[in-house]
Amino acid sequence: MLPIADRYEVKKIVNKRRIWTVGVVALALLGGAHAGAQSTLDAVRGKGYIQCGVNTGLAGFAQPDSNGEWRGIDVDVCRAVAAAVFGDASKVRYTPLTAQQRFTALQSGEVDILSRNTTWTISRDTTLGLNFVGVNYYDGQGFMVPKKRKVKSAKQLSGATVCVQPGTTTELNLADYFRANKMKFKPVVIEKLEEVLNAYFAGRCDVYTTDVSGLIAARSSRAPKAEDHVILPEVISKEPLGPAVRHGDDRWFDIVKWSLFAMIDAEELELSSKNIDGKMNSDNPVIQRFVGAVGESGKMLGLDNRWAYKIIKQVGNYGESFQRNLAPLGLERGINQLWNKGGLMYAPPMR
Predict the structure, then answer these.
(1) Closest Cα to residue 227, out of 332, 146, 329, 142?
(2) Nearest 10 degrees: CA dihedral of 249, 300, 72, 193?
């Protein structure tokens, strides 16, 4: 018989091997389950359309027009993916989601893409099981007040009632800002955008806070008189807004990511919906790769090689989307200009 010490060491080795074996078996089972699961791309192709989670109605980002057609820069991301996958940007169905509904809808598979002016944060990117594909609008949180209150700065808002939506970074930033500046406030928390805007414009609260783009859109499209409302100069946070997909499906992640990048890259290459047909025989090797005349970018993504061409032909480049959806509301490009024009919009090379 082995000495007690030796028997203890043997037991440790056996236990370690058991743990290692259990781990390997678990990984194998998980791998098998994953391998047997239908990919998002296959599921989308099977049903013939992309289900896109969007805002319940935010001008410039996602809102039905007078004909019931969804419009906005978030909508254009979904249309771009449909153009890449199906060759038809119209093969999208839209699910309007509140801030509190949006993550569950994506996690559960109710939607294939969440393109709903959503801020990219570490908690959402990790513990919520989301993958943000990029940023389609760089924003920051601000405050809007009635002009008649004669408020010039957010530092004058102590004691104010503030309209805010729950389940948002806006709600957290609001509390942080007032605490940091040793001010008090009374939140008026309302889930639905329609109702929170009605409350603000009816005078139920002194202040409305959300992303600056949302303030501009609300003032432009919803205020009885836009000139009666002032957006204060303070921007209290970073809000990189972008589309997201579920963890665990890298192929779908790649497709949605590069669909957004194609729109940004096309603007830099000066390719638009109006001129891209005339660029098909360009001598520029970068443009040749972009339109699919050379290279195998489509094969890399599991798509037709002209996937990027179809996006730009049917949806347009990022600049076209911005001009079509946001410029009419009074939003300027600012930091959402291309990197080579002083902004932050930058797409990796397509090679």
Answers:
(1) 146
(2) 10
pLDDT tens for 195-228 read 999 999 999 999 999 999 999 999 999 999 999 9
Of 237, 261, 294, which closes a domain?
A: 237
| Tokens at 193, concatenated | 């955008």
Helix (H, G, I), strand (E, B) or coil at 211: strand
Q: Please count the structural domains in the chain.
A: 2
Distance (Å, whole) CA 290 – CA 148: 52
Question: Residue written as tokens 């009074």?
Answer: 330
CATH of the domain at 250: 3.40.190.10
Strands (E), 133-283: 137-139, 141-146, 160-164, 185-189, 207-211, 229-231, 239-241, 244-246
Which of 177-184's residues contact partners 24+ apart within 8 Å by CB, and which partners?
177/236, 181/155, 183/155, 183/157, 183/158, 183/159, 184/158, 184/159
Eight-class DSSP state of 134: -
* pLDDT tens column, 229-288: 999 999 999 999 999 999 999 999 999 999 999 999 999 999 999 999 999 999 999 999
Enclosing domain of residue 202: 141-237
| Residue 204 token pair | 């139920």
Is the pTM higher than 0.85? The answer reads yes
Pairing status of strand 137-139 against strand 239-241: antiparallel
